[in-house]
Amino acid sequence: MKLIKIAMVCAIFITGFIMAGCNKEKYLARDTSGLKPPPPVDTTTPPVVDTSVVIDNCDAIDNWQVVGTPVEATTGQKEGKGYVQATLATGSNFEQFIKTLPAPVNTKVTLSTGELKLWLYIQDVSLLKLDGQIQFSSSGAPDNNRIGWPLANIIPTLKNGWNHLELKFTDPTVEITGDGGPDLTAMNFVKIFFWTTNNVATDQIYGVDDIRVAAIPPPPPVEIDNCDAIDGWQVVGTPVEITTRSEERRVGKECRSR
């Protein structure tokens, strides 16, 4: 009986020793901040690369002219530190923005591939007369080597507040001076001018921000035939639809003759 008790005590002791040896040591995690890790970066969508050329970011009023005194507004801008603001005073009916660049800018586009982009702020579109123009020149003046967009065609598309204009050089309404138009490798002048239908009853605020030139995005490709069927195809001999080794994403089909 005594041997049985001794055996039981030894068994309990050995079992406890084995269980103690199986317990893992606990270590504190290195990151004790309690913050959740950031979500994984999406690598499936390629980043958008902006290749546009800045004409003026409108973050300063240097070399700007308006009717009255230009103001650098630092709230409500669409880009950067501010925008160029002009106030059409009560009883007036004409406003303009003129920028003479201190150095010419190469837009890196052609008349068939480019567009002028800018933000235009209009306090009350209903007051505008269907007249005026947005001009872009390489002569340092508005009447030579110029391309222009009539505001009569643009004003009906505007809303009160900020409007983002994308003015294509190929627009059918665009006006190009007879001296050959602008030298797009040396642009140095922007002018925007317009009238109100009557003298305004209260001061009106207008603004310009982030003027730049960009290449027109290419049109999406048009599929002529994916060659997944031989319908309508003729070859010398008999066309055959091949279902392996396709170059169309490696999953399509192709046609060949025997």
Key phrases:
258 residues; mainly beta; 6-stranded antiparallel β-sheet; 2 helices; extended
Summed up, the helix count is 2
Uncertain regions: pLDDT < 50 for 5+ in a row?
none
Oligomeric state as shown: single chain
Task: State the helical fraction.
Answer: under 10%
Give the helices and strands as they follow along the chain: HEEEEEEEEHEEEEEE
Structural class determined from secondary elements: mainly beta
Give a concise summary.
The chain has 258 residues and is mostly beta strands.
What does this protein look like?
- By secondary structure, the chain is mostly beta strands.
- Helix content is about 10%, strand content about 35%.
- The protein has two helices and 14 strands, in the order αββββββββαββββββ.
- The strands form three sheets. Strands 1, 3, 4, 6, 9 and 12 form a six-stranded antiparallel beta sheet that branches.
- The chain is extended, with a radius of gyration of 35 Å.
- The model has no long low-confidence stretch (mean pLDDT about 85).
